[in-house]
Design goal:
about 425 residues, two-stranded antiparallel ribbon, 21 helices, mainly alpha, three-stranded mixed beta sheet
C-alpha cells in the first residue's frame, strides 16, 4: 500500500483506499513514538533526496541556456550542468540527446589502422555496413566464440548465439534487443532462436491477426521485439496515427493501471471498428502491455548491431589485428588483459613478449602474431616509450643491456623503469 498511496493520502478521507489505512491511523493516534516518526516522514516525503548527472545526456537549445534554464558548474570537474531534470527541460521546449562514448569505436579505429600497417589493406567500415553478409563473420557468431565482440561476448549471449545460429543482420539486431531482463523473463530470446531454426512453430498472436500483422512480425518470427512494432500494430489494427501510436507506447511503458485503462478504451474501439473480436483485442493487449515496459528501440538495437557486426567481421577475418587493438584497449586492466591473452591462445595467435628492440608503445600485429606493447608494462609511461623508440630509430637496436642503457636518456629510463622492463622480459 505504501507504494501506491502517498503517506499524506492515508489521512485523506476522500482517497479511494482510505478505509485500508484504519489500523495504521489508530496506531498513529495512540502511540506518540509512531506519531513522531510518521510526522517526520510526512515532512520529508516528496523532497529531493539527491541530485545526479546523466551519463550521456546533453541539453540542446537554439538560445543560450543561461537565458532559458538555471545552470551550475559541477564542483569536482567544472562541468556545466542544468539544475532542472530532463522532463522539465523538455517541457520548456529543449531537446535532450544522449551522446554515449564507446571504447569499441577506438578499438575499431585501431584495428583498421593495424590492418593497413600489417597487410597494406585499406578497410572501409562504411562499405562493410552497406553489405553485412560476410560468411566468416556469421560463422564466428554462430560458433559463440564472441569474446571481445561488442554486446555479444557474455556467457549467456554466447550460448544464445549457438542456439540461434544467426546468418543475417536482423538476427544480430534481435539478439541485442531480446537479451534483456524483460524479454528473457518471457523466454522471448529462446523462442526467437527456436523459431528461427525451425524447432518451434511460428504461430500468430491470434488467428484473426495472422494476416494483418504478417508483414510487421514476419521478420521476427511472429514475436514482438521492438518498440516500433507496437506502434505499427496500433496503426494497422486500431487506426492510430503515428503520433497517437507513440503516445500509446509511452503510456504502456509507464505501467500505471489508470493510464492503461484509459488507453485501452480507444484501442479496443479502434480494433472493433476494424472488425476484430473481443478475444483478439484482449489477447493482443495482454501481450503488448507487459512487453512495452521493456521493449527496445530498433534504431538503437540496429546501431549497436552494426558495431557488433564490424567487430565480428574483424575478429573473423583479421584476428591478429583485431586482438591487438582489443588488448591495447584494456592494457591498464590486468584481469581483462589476461582474459584476452587467453583468447589469443585459444585462437592460435602467438603474443610475443615485449622487446625494447622491436616493440612499439601499443600492442601491434606482426604477421599472424602480436607483439606486446611497451606501454602496457607497469611504470612504463608514454614518455619512456617515446624515448626508447626515438633512441632505437637514431642508433639502431641495442646489442646488449649496457648498450641499451647508453643509448636511452637516463631522464627517461630511471631505476624503476629499468626494473619493470627487466621483470617483463623486455
Amino acid at each position: 500500500m505504501g507504494k501506491d498511496v502517498p503517506l499524506p493520502e492515508v489521512f485523506n478521507p476522500q482517497h479511494a483506499r482510505y478505509a485500508e489505512g484504519g489500523e495504521f491511523r489508530a496506531l498513529y493516534e495512540s502511540d506518540p513514538e509512531v506519531q513522531e516518526v510518521v510526522d517526520t516522514a510526512r515532512g520529508i516525503e516528496g523532497l529531493k533526496r539527491q541530485w545526479g548527472v546523466h551519463a550521456a545526456g546533453v541539453i540542446m537549445s537554439s538560445a543560450p541556456l543561461i537565458d532559458v534554464i538555471p545552470i551550475m558548474k559541477r564542483e569536482q570537474d567544472g562541468q556545466i550542468i542544468t539544475q532542472f531534470d530532463y522532463p522539465s527541460c523538455e517541457a520548456l521546449g529543449l531537446v535532450k540527446m544522449d551522446f554515449l562514448g564507446l571504447r569499441n569505436l577506438t578499438i575499431l579505429d585501431d584495428a583498421v589502422r593495424n590492418v593497413k600497417t600489417n597487410r597494406d589493406i585499406d578497410l572501409d567500415l562504411d562499405a562493410l555496413r552497406r553489405d553485412m553478409s560476410d560468411r566468416a563473420a556469421y560463422e564466428l557468431l554462430a560458433s559463440g566464440e564472441t569474446l571481445g565482440v561488442f554486446q555479444l561476448d557474455g556467457g549467456g549471449l554466447r550460448s544464445l548465439l549457438k542456439l540461434m545460429r544467426p546468418d543475417n543482420f536482423e538476427d544480430i539486431s534481435a539478439t541485442i534487443a531480446l537479451y534483456r531482463p524483460g524479454p528473457m523473463g518471457a523466454d522471448s530470446h529462446t523462442n526467437y532462436a527456436l523459431r528461427k531454426t525451425g524447432r518451434q512453430k511460428v504461430e500468430p498472436i491470434h488467428p484473426e491477426l495472422a494476416e494483418p500483422l504478417a508483414d510487421i512480425l514476419d521478420t521476427t518470427y511472429g514475436l514482438i521485439v521492438y518498440q516500433e512494432q507496437i506502434q505499427q500494430i496500433a496503426q494497422r489494427v486500431a487506426g492510430y496515427t503515428l503520433g497517437g501510436a507513440d503516445l500509446l507506447r509511452r503510456a504502456m511503458g509507464k505501467k500505471k493501471k489508470e493510464v492503461l485503462e484509459a488507453e485501452f478504451e480507444p484501442f479496443s474501439a479502434g480494433m472493433k471498428a476494424n472488425g476484430f473480436s473481443a478475444a483478439a483485442i484482449n489477447k493482443l493487449w495482454e501481450i503488448m502491455v507487459p512487453f512495452a515496459a521493456y521493449a527496445f528501440n530498433k534504431a538503437h538495437s540496429a546501431a549497436y548491431g552494426v558495431v557488433s557486426y564490424w567487430t565480428a567481421y574483424l575478429k573473423a577475418n583479421y584476428p591478429a589485428e583485431y586482438m591487438a587493438a582489443l588488448l591495447e584497449s584494456v592494457k591498464n586492466d590486468k584481469d581483462k588483459t589476461a582474459l584476452y591473452l587467453g583468447e589469443c591462445r585459444r585462437m592460435g595467435i602467438r603474443v610475443l613478449p615485449p622487446d625494447v628492440n622491436t616493440s612499439e608503445g601499443m600492442f601491434t600485429p606482426v604477421g599472424e602474431d602480436i607483439r606486446y606493447g611497451l606501454a602496457a608494462i607497469r611504470n612504463v609511461g608514454d614518455n619512456v616509450v617515446k624515448g626508447i623508440v626515438e633512441a632505437r630509430g637514431e642508433r639502431g637496436p641495442a646489442r646488449d643491456f649496457n648498450g641499451f642503457l647508453d643509448q636511452v636518456p637516463l631522464v627517461v629510463c630511471n631505476k624503476r623503469v629499468i626494473e619493470s622492463l627487466i621483470k617483463a622480459g623486455a
